[in-house]
């Protein structure tokens, strides 16, 4: 199997497919990733202790960036009288909901990121 390019890795990951081979079916459910890809067999947690911390980091950063953009956009569009209660409670709701929404994407995107630096070996 040839090594996919960096754009291909991240595009496959963005649609929740295996970044290595592009096959669907990497997830059993929204919160449960399979131990390995059903098509190419690459392990989804690639053997290092603390590997999942990277995916969690991607998840939190993505949630914070979306929160920042949305809250900033609402404040700019409604300036000089922004809806402070909406920003407060909406922001709180987003910071709780977004990590759950981004969870599977963070797993596949971090796997793609890892594959850039540590390509999969022959199976």
Topology record:
Elements lengths: L5 H9 L12 E3 L2 E2 L17 H27 L6 H34 L6
Antiparallel strand pairs: 1-2
Helix pairs in contact: 1-3, 2-3
Considering the chains and any ligands shown, give keywords for the structure.
123 residues, mainly alpha, 3 helices, 2 strands
Describe this structure in words.
It is a single chain. The chain is 57% helix and 4% strand. It is mainly alpha-helical and 123 residues long. It has a two-stranded antiparallel sheet. It is elongated and about 60 Å long. The mean pLDDT is 92.
Brief overview:
This protein has 123 residues and is mainly alpha-helical.
Alpha carbon gap, first and last residue: 9 Å
**Largest sheet: number of strands, sense, barrel closure:** 2 strands, antiparallel
Helix tally equals: 3
Radius of gyration: 18 Å
Helical content stands at 55-70%
Helix-strand topology string: HEEHH
């Amino acid at each position: 199997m040839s090594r996919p390019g960096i754009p291909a890795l991240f595009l496959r990951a963005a649609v929740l497919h295996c970044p290595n081979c592009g096959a669907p079916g990497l997830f059993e459910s929204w919160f449960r990733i399979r131990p390995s890809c059903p098509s190419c067999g690459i392990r989804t947690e690639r053997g290092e202790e603390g590997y999942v911390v990277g995916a969690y980091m991607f998840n939190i950063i993505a949630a914070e960036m979306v929160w920042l953009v949305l809250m900033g956009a609402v404040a700019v569009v409604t300036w000089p009288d922004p809806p402070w209660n909406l920003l407060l409670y909406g922001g709180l709701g987003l910071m709780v909901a977004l990590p759950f929404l981004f969870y599977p994407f963070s797993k596949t995107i971090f796997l793609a990121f890892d594959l850039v630096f540590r390509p999969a070996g022959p199976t």
